[in-house]
């Protein structure tokens, strides 16, 4: 259930702009599902989508003060994810590990030192606390890349005496851990996002178990009403496809799923699944995601998203 006294987006944004990192964590937790939905729609299911959401979280950390309409912060966050996703689509060269911190680099025409730039931002204490929590190897490459004049992957590799590929890997890990630290502030408070996600986790497990049994109890029938529609892969061209029969057909073909991760908001829910297909007629990718658009808690559209082929 959503707490009746849950703070509004506007309240949380203003608190975040005043330097309250917990408020920013709550905002990101609340909007994580719509943010992921944007990334999934552009990048497909896989690590690139997850990276785009993490990039956006860190961009939000640096730029929350730029939000002019706090009540529309959700649209602002989705726009950041959209930009991060499009950047990934068109990038053919090295990508920064923390897009949101790029402007902190030292440049010859900028007299300010990194610590002076950080002092100008209300989130400076959080940034350094988060950096300090990183393991030394990750902390080193991150500080070189984003808080020093040693910015190229080759230069960092030479300084650390490791291959360039290791630098990329460590930067990716550092970015992910910093995003986790920020989002973990939401876990320390009981906001609507945590309650919705917990409830949706239960729905996901119950849906899979009911499909295995071959029948949905009434509460799940309400979750998957008659107007629910499966779109995209596995839907039937030219006709409306309800998700439940497809679930049964998938099971009958030998494909089984288990819940790996859930993120939910009031109108968008994402269930990430691990897939097994022992004896299946056709093999499936080892993971996939259910992207659901809901109205009054009932699923209106379901799109299955499979991993993008590796190039």
How far apart the termini lie comes to 43 Å
Q: What is the CA-atom radius of gyration, in angstroms?
A: 21 Å
Portion in beta strands: 5-15%
Number of DSSP strands? 5
Helical stretch count? Answer: 13
Pattern of helices and strands: HHHHHHHHHHHHEHEEEE
The unreliable regions are 92-123
**How many domains?**
2
Average pLDDT, rounded to a whole number, is 77
Largest β-sheet summary: 5 strands, mixed
Overall spatial form:
globular
Strand order of the main beta sheet, please? 1-5-4-3-2
* Backbone structural class: alpha+beta
In helices, the fraction of residues equals 40-55%
Record the SSE blueprint.
Elements: H1 9-17, H2 21-30, H3 32-43, H4 47-63, H5 73-90, H6 114-119, H7 124-133, H8 136-147, H9 153-160, H10 164-187, H11 192-213, H12 218-223, E1 229-231, H13 243-252, E2 256-264, E3 268-276, E4 287-295, E5 298-305
Describe the 3D structure.
With 311 residues, the chain is of the alpha+beta class. The chain has two domains: 9-187, no CATH class; 192-305, Nuclear Transport Factor 2, Chain: A. It contains 13 helices and five strands. It has helices at residues 9-17, 21-30, 32-43, 47-63, 73-90, 114-119, 124-133, 136-147, 153-160, 164-187, 192-213, 218-223, 243-252; strands spanning 229-231, 256-264, 268-276, 287-295, 298-305. Strands 1-5-4-3-2 form a five-stranded mixed sheet, sandwiched between helices. The relative contact order is 0.12. The model is unreliable at 92-123 (pLDDT under 50).
């Amino acid at each position: 259930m959503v707490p009746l006294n849950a703070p509004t987006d506007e309240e949380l944004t203003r608190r975040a702009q005043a330097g309250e990192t917990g408020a920013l964590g709550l905002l990101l937790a609340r909007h994580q599902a719509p943010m992921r939905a944007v990334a999934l729609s552009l990048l497909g299911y896989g690590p690139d989508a997850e990276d785009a959401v993490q990039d956006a979280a860190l961009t939000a950390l640096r730029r929350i003060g730029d939000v002019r309409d706090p009540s529309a912060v959700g649209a602002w966050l989705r726009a950041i994810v959209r930009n991060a996703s499009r950047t990934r689509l068109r990038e053919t060269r090295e990508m920064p590990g923390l897009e949101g911190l790029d402007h902190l680099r030292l440049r010859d025409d900028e007299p300010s030192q990194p610590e002076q730039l950080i002092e100008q931002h209300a989130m400076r204490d959080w940034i350094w606390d988060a950096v300090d929590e990183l393991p030394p190897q990750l902390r080193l490459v991150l500080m070189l890349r984003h808080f020093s004049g040693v910015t190229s992957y080759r230069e960092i590799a030479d300084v650390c005496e490791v291959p360039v590929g290791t630098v990329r890997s460590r930067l990716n890990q550092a970015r992910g851990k910093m995003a986790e630290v920020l989002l973990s502030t939401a876990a320390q408070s009981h906001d609507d996002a945590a309650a919705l996600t917990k409830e949706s986790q239960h729905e996901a497990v119950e849906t899979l178990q009911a499909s295995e049994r071959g029948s949905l109890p009434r509460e799940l029938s309400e979750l998957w009403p008659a107007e629910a529609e499966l779109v995209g892969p596995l839907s039937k061209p030219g006709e409306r496809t309800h998700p439940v029969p497809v679930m049964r057909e998938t099971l009958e073909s030998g494909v089984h799923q288990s819940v790996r991760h859930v993120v939910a908001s009031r109108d968008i829910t994402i269930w990430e699944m691990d897939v097994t297909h022992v004896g299946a007629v056709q093999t499936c990718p080892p993971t996939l995601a259910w992207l659901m658009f809901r109205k009054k808690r009932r699923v209106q559209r379901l799109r299955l998203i499979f991993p993008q082929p590796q190039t």
